[in-house]
Design goal:
The chain has 16 helices and 14 strands. The chain is of the alpha+beta class and about 475 residues long. The strands form three sheets. Strands 2-5-6-9-1-10-11-12-13 form a nine-stranded mixed sheet, covered by helices on one side. The longest helix has 20 residues.
Length: about 475
């Protein structure tokens, strides 16, 4: 099946995501077993997480606090909630039910804001326990042709929060933005490490297509997408598959589907279950969860600034005149790499916000771990040398790379490299030579072709071995043109 993307205006994808987030607690949700990734299989287990007769669950208070942090960050209503048993055959859950929250979740009716300002609604963010992990040996790792299967119960009972978006997402690219933003929020709350490669974050995608302004189509759920790349590819394939089915006169069946990364396609797993298929009923061994107002207030006070708030703070440093769509991406990069504090510090030290943003989003973000350890005063001293014309942009970038790798004093590094500002009269002489050597291009520039500014600036930088200041070169070119 070709699964080619639909032509704009013919079909509209409707996408909702269910993100399963493992919480960073020391122990599991209902017992004292260690919650850790990568331990020897079947070593972090006990009668409770194995579901042995007579064992009783005890709710982990830290997991509840983490769930409330997530709800607060997603602007949800934090409500009294109830745990239920969700029943069906789990090959990797020995008690054959999962303790989850059904119609009374702890968090509901929230939203998050994407970097472009789009809001995506959050239906709920409820608590539940994770299942164990089954590994199918042989036959490509799929159950239908495996030689045998191995089960590790270490993950059974690990605390989860499942965040269910509203069907507000309209493309695979937007789904990726949502997942990235949500991961940033979860990490910022301290509730999760956000490591998709370790299974700390797993995504299910509900996908349907419709004609614009029509009723929602029949949705299919793609299970357990464990990378952003897989998320985008799976959604794009499924959109194309459903369009092809509908345009050939067929009917999209409501199904749970699996994404095959190697083949680049989804395949049917089973008909999609409805709530009644799970035979939910209240968990008889757990009381109703109703955090008091004081606890909720303490949790709300512990939640710091979220990525959207931090992006807004950087945008405010630029001011309305300095803000642009291109800088939106730079701001998002700075916040994603945790460098907004560094940028803010150098702006407060007198560095222009556009320069601070450019260097932090581009050069510093190339090595964010070292950049986060960079002394703000040292960083400001380097950028000040570029700002006052002592260093060119090229020289600044080179010295910043050295500072990140080895540290040092910017002024001393500049002296060691022989970097110094090009004298004004020397710059005039270089520009004279460049203009004389390119009369046709200069005539076009004189007639208003501003695209040639870069052409002449590049030649001047090459002739001066990067010592010229780009702003000074542009100013000299404009002076000559009159």
């Amino acid at each position: 099946m070709s699964a080619a993307p639909a032509a704009p205006g013919d079909w509209e994808p409707v996408i909702g995501l269910e993100v399963h987030c493992e919480l960073r607690t020391a122990t599991k949700l209902f017992c004292g077993c260690r919650n850790a990734f990568g331990d020897e299989p079947n070593t972090n287990i006990c009668p409770v997480c194995l579901g042995l007769p007579g064992s009783l669950p005890v709710l982990n208070a830290v997991a509840v606090e983490f769930a409330m942090r997530i709800g607060t960050a997603l602007r949800c209503d934090i409500r009294p909630s109830l745990f239920h048993r969700k029943n069906y055959f789990y090959p990797d859950m020995p008690k054959d039910y999962q303790i989850s929250q059904f119609d009374e979740p702890i968090n509901a009716n929230g939203w998050l804001e994407l970097p472009d300002g789009t809001r995506v609604g959050v239906e709920r963010a409820h608590m539940e326990e994770d299942t164990g992990k089954t590994t199918h040996v042989g036959g490509g790792g799929r159950i239908h042709d495996a030689r045998h299967s191995l089960v590790d119960y270490n993950r059974a009972g690990v605390p989860l929060v499942e965040i269910v978006s509203r069907p507000d997402i309209r493309s695979a690219a937007q789904a990726r933005l949502y997942a990235e933003e949500l991961r940033g929020i979860l990490v910022a709350t301290g509730a999760s490490d956000g490591r998709m490669e370790e299974g700390s974050l797993r995504v299910d995608a509900n996908v349907s297509v419709r004609r614009p302004d029509a009723e929602f189509g029949t949705r299919c759920e793609i299970k357990n997408l464990n990378s952003l790349r897989s998320l985008v590819r799976a959604i794009e394939y499924e959109i194309g598959r459903q369009i092809e089915v509908l345009e050939s006169g067929g009917t999209v069946l409501q199904q749970t589907r699996h994404w095959d990364e190697d083949r680049g396609e989804t395949g049917a797993l089973r008909s999609k279950e409805e709530a009644f298929d799970y035979r939910y009923f209240p968990e008889p061994d757990l009381v109703r969860l109703d955090p008091d107002a004081g606890w909720r207030a303490d949790v709300a006070a512990s939640v710091g600034a979220m990525p959207a708030d931090r992006r807004a703070a950087l945008a405010a440093l630029l001011g309305p005149e300095g803000f642009s769509a291109a800088r939106t991406d730079q701001i998002a990069t700075v916040v994603e790499n945790g460098l907004d504090g560094l940028m803010t510090a150098v702006v407060e030290a007198g560095i222009g916000a556009p320069l601070a943003l450019a260097r932090t989003a581009n050069e510093a973000s190339a090595d964010p771990q070292r950049a986060r350890a960079l002394d703000p005063d040292t960083y400001a001293a380097l950028l000040r040398m570029e700002q006052d014309g002592t260093l060119s942009a090229t020289q600044t970038k080179e010295l910043l790379g050295e500072l990140l790798e080895r540290g040092g004093d910017p002024a001393e590094l500049a002296r060691r490299h022989g970097y110094q500002a090009l004298a004004a009269d020397s710059l005039v002489e270089v520009v004279d030579e460049i203009v004389a050597a390119h009369p046709e291009e200069w005539a076009r520039y004189g007639d208003g072709d501003d695209k040639l500014t870069g052409f002449f600036t590049g030649l001047v930088m090459k002739a001066t071995q990067g010592k010229a200041n780009g702003k000074a070169v542009a100013a000299e070119l404009r002076r000559r043109r009159g």
